[in-house]
């Protein structure tokens, strides 16, 4: 047996959902750049779930279904209220999604129709959960979703409890498009492993949230902001802090990628969003600091920013606290996860690789008094 550590380069399955070819990311064959510049998130949801862009009546229907599914079961809302106030929202989100499964009578119905409904229901409810967690931590009552709002509008509305700001809505909508799917990343793979045992969609998405939470994956965006806010603090500290980190062989969060060696195609969109927000808010600090970090890490280490790097300053400009950065990633990626769950069920085989055993051999059982 030969081992590819971290499964690097291993092609584990076939998929028709998204592809990374020569550094170009496409959803269902459409370049992400085109989607980021032209589509809205609901169109991308439909595209990922159904393999093609929606016609107007199909888009209207999806929006209606999302609107009708966004409210949480009262029992789950009560659970959110009982969670410890200082819990990380990714831990709370993971637990809340698991709880949702207990209040869905069809949780274990793995028919395509039931799973399509669950995919819409989960995608609709994640923003409601994240916004409720945000408000509860601040001692505020959660705000109910409004069915007439778009996905991004609803999220911004439920965070602040007032008419959503257009700039924030546009930025969130684009960020959701950019994060929606990414071939066989760790959380998607985890969701497919769970699905392949013929477990239910709630279990698969709970698995995925737990996997996205880690700092080498989705959790990096929060750490980028922690580095900017707490370690670097001022522009003149970028160079000494980055140099110290590199000398100590610390990873710089938001840089490097297992697949992209010549840059993540999503990063340029987030960088531009961060630049535009720095201008419209008149606060250039986070953007300038990010640019300088980017310049240094590229020059000294040859590493380029990934999707997590400029999403941090973008969200910071929108006034979003860094604890919510990874949950926002989940609000988007649930679309990709559920598309992969549907694809896995459609042509399933248990996912069970092998391990090369490197431990001791020919050992004997010693009775406890002789050890
Ligand atoms: C949405 C996403 O999940 S995007 C990724 C988000 N994660 C991060 O931003 C965390 C920081 N980045 C990393 O840890 C890595 O680049 C990963 C996890 C993304 C990819 O990891 P891998 O493909 O396993 O690369 P690996 O960790 O083996 O790194 C290869 C070499 O580059 C170095 N390296 C990779 N990323 C970084 C980084 N961000 N900062 C400093 N050095 C790095 C490693 O130290 C290693 O150096 P060495 O060969 O001298 O030991
Ligand atoms: O593909 C990966 O390994 C990580 C990533 O960029 C993502 O999940 O968006």
Please tell me about this protein's structure.
With 371 residues, the protein is an all-alpha fold. The protein has 2 domains: 17-214 and 323-346, Citrate Synthase, domain 1 (Orthogonal Bundle), CATH 1.10.580; 220-317, Cytochrome P450-Terp, domain 2 (Cytochrome p450-Terp, domain 2). It has 16 helices and 3 strands. The structure holds acetyl coenzyme *A (ACO) and oxaloacetate ion (OAA).
Bound molecules: acetyl coenzyme *A, oxaloacetate ion
How many separate helices?
Answer: 16
Q: Could you estimate the helical fraction of the residues in percent?
A: 55-70%
The major sheet is characterized as:
3 strands, antiparallel
Number of domains: 2
In terms of DSSP E residues, the strand content is: under 5%
Shape: globular
Structural class: mainly alpha
Number of strands: 3
- CATH H-tier superfamily of the largest domain: Citrate Synthase, domain 1
Distance N to C terminus: 34 Å
């Amino acid at each position: 047996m030969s081992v590819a550590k971290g499964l690097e380069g291993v092609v584990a399955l076939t998929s028709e959902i998204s592809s990374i070819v020569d550094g170009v990311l496409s959803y269902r064959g459409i370049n992400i750049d085109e989607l980021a510049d032209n589509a809205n998130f609901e169109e991308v949801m439909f595209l990922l779930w159904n393999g093609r862009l929606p016609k107007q009546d199909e888009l209207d229907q999806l929006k209606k279904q999302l609107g009708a599914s966004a409210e949480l079961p009262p029992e789950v809302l009560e659970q959110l209220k009982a969670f410890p106030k200082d819990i990380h929202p990714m831990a709370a989100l993971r637990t809340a999604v698991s709880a949702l499964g207990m209040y869905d009578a069809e949780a274990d119905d793995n028919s395509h129709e039931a799973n399509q409904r669950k995919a819409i229901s989960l995608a609709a409810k994640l923003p409601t959960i994240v916004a409720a967690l945000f408000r509860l931590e601040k001692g505020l009552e959660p705000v109910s979703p409004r069915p007439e709002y778009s996905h991004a509008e609803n999220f911004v509305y439920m965070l602040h409890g007032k008419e959503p700001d257009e700039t924030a809505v546009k930025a969130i909508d684009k960020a959701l498009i950019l994060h929606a799917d990414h071939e066989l990343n760790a959380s998607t793979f985890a969701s497919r492993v769970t699905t392949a045992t013929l477990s239910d969609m709630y279990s698969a998405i709970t698995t995925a949230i737990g996997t996205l939470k880690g700092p080498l994956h989705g959790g990096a965006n929060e750490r980028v902001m922690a580095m900017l806010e707490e370690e670097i603090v001022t522009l003149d500290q970028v160079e000494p802090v980055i140099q110290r980190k590199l000398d100590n062989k610390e990873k710089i969060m938001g840089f490097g990628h297992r697949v992209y060696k010549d840059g993540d195609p999503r990063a340029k969109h987030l960088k531009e969003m961060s630049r535009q927000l720095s201008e419209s808010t008149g606060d250039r600090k986070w953007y300038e600091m990010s640019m300088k970090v980017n310049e240094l890490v590229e020059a000294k280490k040859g590493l380029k920013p990934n999707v997590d790097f400029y999403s941090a300053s973008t969200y910071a400009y929108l006034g979003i606290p860094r604890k919510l950065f990874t949950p926002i990633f989940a609000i988007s990626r649930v679309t990709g996860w559920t598309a992969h769950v549907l694809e896995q069920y459609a042509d399933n085989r248990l996912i069970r690789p092998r391990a090369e055993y490197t431990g001791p051999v020919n050992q004997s059982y010693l009775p406890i008094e002789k050890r």
